[in-house]
Structure formats: C-alpha cells, structure tokens
Amino acid sequence: MPPCARRFLFVLTAVAVAQGFPADAAAQSLLRQTPNIPDGLAAIPWNLSVQLPLRLTDTPADGVALRDVTTLSFILALPLRLSVGGRYSPSSTVVKREIGELELFGRFLAFEQDSGSPVDAALQVGYNTVAGSLDGELRVSRRFGPLEIIGIGRGMTDAFGEGEAGLAAGAGVVLRPLPGSIPAALVGDALWLFTPNLDEQLVWSAGLQLALPLTPLSLSLLVANTQTTTLQGSTLPSDELWVGLELAFSIPTGAYFGLHSTKGESREATRVPPVEPARTERVEIEGFAFRPLRLVVPRGTTVVWTNRDKVVHTVTAEDGGFDGTVPPDRSFQLTFERPGSYPYFCEPHPFMRGVVVVK
Asked: 260-358, what's its fold?
C-alpha cells in the first residue's frame, strides 16, 4: 500500500475513534487559528487536545508522483493557563538528510481578551529534537466582532539544522462570515523568514475552518507552501504547493482521573438561584463560544449564561450534573454552592466548552 494511502487510512481511523467519544469530549476547535499559526488560547485544565493535519503535493520527487506529510499534535491543558504538548511528523524533511521531526513545547497564556485584557497574548517555548534547536513564538491577537487579527514573532537557535539562528514575523486573519449562525471561518496567514541561506522566504497559507455540530470534530480544508505544523515546519517555505485536511478533537482526561467534580457533586453544588443572589457573574454565548471560557468565582455565586447567537445552545455539565437549554436572546442561571471544577459544553455544538471553578 502506498505511504499516502496508509496515512489517509490513519486519518480515517482517527475520525472513527473521535466519533466514538461521548459528546462531552468537546473539541479544541480550529476556528481560532490558521494553518501556519497555532491556537494560543487556554483550554479546560486536564483536557487533551489532538490535531491531525495531512498535507499532499503532486510535485514528483525520487520517483514518487504523490507525496504526503502527516503531523500528529497533542496538547494537554494545565491549570494557570499553562499547557504542554508535542508535534511529530514521521515523514518530515524540514531538516535535510533527516526523516521525521519531533517538537516538544510548553505554552503560557499571559493575557486573555475574554477576561478583560485588550488582547490575547501567548508565549510558546519548545525544542525541536531533529534540528537540535530551542524554538519560541510570541502570539498576540485581538478580535473585532467576527474578525480576528493575529501577529506573531518566532525565533530558532538552529533553523532547519543548518547551524544558523532564524527569525520570523508574520500575521494572520480569521473571519467568521456568519458568527451567530454557522460555525465556520475563512483564514489566512503570511510569514517572512529572516535567514540568509534561503532564496524564497515568504511563507503563506489559507483555509476554510469548520466545526461540525453534533460531533466532537472540527475540520480544516487548507492550501499552503509549508509541510508540517511544528514551529520550524510552518516557518520553512517550500517550492511545492501543498493541499491538506486537518482534524481536531479533545479527550476529557481530567474527568477520567478524578480531576473534575463528579456527577453527584455537580448536582449538589448547583441549585436554582434565589430572587436576589449575593453575587452574579455573567457568561456570554456569542460566535459559538462561551466568553469567558474559564470563570473563577467564590461559593454562593450565581452564574448567568446569555445566548447572543441565532441558534439554540445548551449549558451541559461534562459529568451530566446540570443541563440547561438557552434559546436565542434568553438566559440560563445556576448558583454554585460547593468548591470544585465544573466543566461544561454545548450539546448541539460540543466543540464549545467552558468551565466554572468555585473557590
């Protein structure tokens, strides 16, 4: 069987496995990133996000008419807006005379627009084992309604195993044409690589991102002049044109290891709020997202979810301890009486996630 066929079957198997997860395995959606600029946002602590990009080109090389590159990405969200992860591509040729590429990294979300900051700002630091390079990226973005503008700066101590440091800067755009009706985004990016050993230094990509309702999947259809999604792979320009498919989903590992509250605890911790609650916090449901995604409140706080979209959403606990339907322009509220971590999602759109942390 040709290598590209084997990898295509691998992606199909991943889809089948993802479909087998329960709806509460809400996905790390692709709607906030571009093909060459990863999502820098925080996720529910202890959720494991998985991304599977597959890129193909029909430019012949070494007698192979159709070539493909697959990258497996995984990110484990931690408390305090931290996350750790890795990206591995067995067929990457980012480093000459080497097959395969592994990147291990950590990420910190320093500022978050949903928490009142003017921008989202995330710092990623990692190590590319094939290039022997310490790599980093600073990502800053801001939303203006359905439009999000992203700016990045990257640095590599050994770019592509050539023995020279590399720098890159670029920008990306995410546009949601129908933010309250259809979970889709048009995306694109352009990066400029500053190294003296490459003739063509412009990196670019474009794509259509889709979140699939009633499934834990989000999907990207893309075109780019880059091979892999590591920092080095998504910075190295290629002479070939690559087209691709990317899938993303996540696994609620925190629920499996007792790091989130149990179903019984969720039921006991929430009740119908009194007429005049002592304290109220609000979560906006807008653009197929809960804002803020992570809400920290003291015990006795009433949380009010208001739906600004044009479709019906739900506020459903991952453990099933509470469940509320929120029609357009309506609200749902609960009072939390017991300390704990209470992740939730939208049942029709399980890529929408949030968490209430009660201190």
From this structure: Immunoglobulin-like (2.60.40)
